[in-house]
Amino acid sequence: MSEKKVVKIVKRSERAQRKPVKPKTARKTASDMVNTVTSWVSEFQERQRAETAKAIDNLIRSRQQPNEA
Questions:
Q1: pLDDT by residue (tens digit) across 24-59?
Q2: In whole angstroms, what is the distance from residue 21 CA to residue 19 CA?
Q3: pTM of whole model > 0.85?
C-alpha cells in the first residue's frame, strides 16, 4: 500500500502567528490509553455491581412474599 503524505502550505505572514506543535510523547500517549481503559473497567464494574445488587434484592423480595399456589 502506498501512503499519502499531506503537505500544508504556510504563508510567510502566517509563520509568525503559528505556535510550534509539540508531538505527544509515547509515555503520555500510553498513559492516556491506560487511563481510558481503567475508567472503562471501573464503569463496567460499577454497572455490574448495581445490576447484581438489584437482582439479589428482587430475589430476596420474591422469597419473602407468601406463595399463592
A1: 788 899 999 999 999 999 999 999 999 999 999 999
A2: 6
A3: no
* The three grid cell numbers given for residue 22, joined into one nine-digit string: 509539540
Please answer whether residues 18 and 10 qualify as being in contact, where contact means their C-beta atoms are separated by less than 8 angstroms. yes
3-state SS assignment for residue 60: helix
- Whose grid coordinates read 498513559? 31
Q: How is 6-58 classified by DSSP, letter by letter?
A: P-----HHHHTTPPPPPPPPHHHHHHHHHHHHHHHHHHHHHHHHHHHHHHHHH
